[in-house]
Amino acid sequence: MTFAKIFDSEKHGQLLLKEDVSEEGNPELRLYFQINGESVCSVALHFKDNEDGWKRADAAFAEFSLELAEDLMKSVPQEVFDLYK
């Protein structure tokens, strides 16, 4: 079973998507990225902890693409990137 995908983004470099379980036990997709070769950060998409939530997380993982990863990166506030200038 595949649980991770790596994307190479021209703008953001290497992006790692991992299908996992949150600390609360809910299914989640977490996108990891590195800022200026220093800190590794992540953003997450959470799903409900029920049969439908697990199916949605699996479907979202299967469909996740470089374009979606780059769109998700837009949710990271510019101030986070500014910390590493």
Write structural notes for this entry.
- The chain has 85 residues and is α+β, with helices and mostly antiparallel strands.
- It has helices spanning 51-63, 66-73, 78-82; strands spanning 4-9, 13-21, 27-35, 39-46.
- The chain has a four-stranded antiparallel sheet, covered by helices on one side.
- The longest helix is centred in the C-terminal third of the chain and has 13 residues, at 51-63.
- The model has no long low-confidence stretch (mean pLDDT 92).
Q: Which runs of at least 5 residues are low in confidence (pLDDT < 50)?
A: none
Biggest sheet strand order reads 1-2-3-4
Q: How many beta-strand elements? A: 4
Ends apart, CA distance between termini: 38 Å
- CA radius of gyration: 13 Å
Structural class: alpha+beta
* Whole-number count of domains: 1
Q: Quick one: biggest sheet?
A: 4 strands, antiparallel
> What is the averaged pLDDT score?
92
Highlighted features:
four-stranded antiparallel sheet, alpha+beta, 3 helices, 4 strands, single chain, 85 residues
In short:
This protein has three helices and four strands, in the order ββββααα. With 85 residues, it is of the alpha+beta class. It is globular.
Q: Any chance you could write out the topology, listing elements then pairs?
A:
Blueprint: E1 4-9, E2 13-21, E3 27-35, E4 39-46, H1 51-63, H2 66-73, H3 78-82
Antiparallel strand pairs: 1-2, 2-3, 3-4
